[in-house]
Amino acid sequence: TTLCMFMQQALSTQTSPPESPTNATDDRPDLDVSATELLELLGDEYTHQVLEAVLERPRTGRELVEATNVSKATVYRRLDRLQAAGIVDARLKLDTDGHHRKQFHTTAESIQVGLGPDGLAASVEFGDDSRPRGVSHSDD
């Protein structure tokens, strides 16, 4: 039930990327994430914490560590997996001290997992491009 509530909350939240220019959606490659991998990723408690913090607002890795009380290594591993799934992306942010930092934001407008004739199927859709990406069937 916690996973269902989290996914409903996450998917009902309208998110938009940061205001500064980012790569065009058409430049984003099609993703190859299986439904099983997507369910495992979204079922992870640390992923929940990281994704909830990014859904609140775009954040740097350091801000995510502080907001979630999760180790730096774990935060970055979950961010890597969320990026591979197309749910989160990053852009470079110039701080007032002159340092460049990656700021992470959500890119997915909806995540769908369902049952089909070939087993589990999953897709990630983006707000500015309604073409489903990452559509994949599980190997089971």
User: Helix proportion of residues, in percent?
Assistant: 25-40%
> Would you identify the CATH H-level superfamily?
Winged helix-like DNA-binding domain superfamily/Winged helix DNA-binding domain
Q: Strand order of the main beta sheet, please?
A: 1-3-2
Radius of gyration: 15 Å
Number of helices: 5
| Overall outline | elongated
- Mean pLDDT rating: 76
Could you outline the blueprint of secondary structure elements for this entry?
Blueprint: H1 2-12, H2 35-42, H3 45-56, E1 59-60, H4 61-68, H5 72-84, E2 88-94, E3 100-106, E4 108-116, E5 119-126, E6 129-137
Antiparallel strand pairs: 1-3, 2-3, 4-5, 5-6
Helix pairs in contact: 3-4, 3-5
Please give a handful of descriptors for the protein shown.
140 residues, disordered N terminus, three-stranded antiparallel β-sheet, Arc Repressor Mutant, subunit A, elongated, single chain, alpha+beta
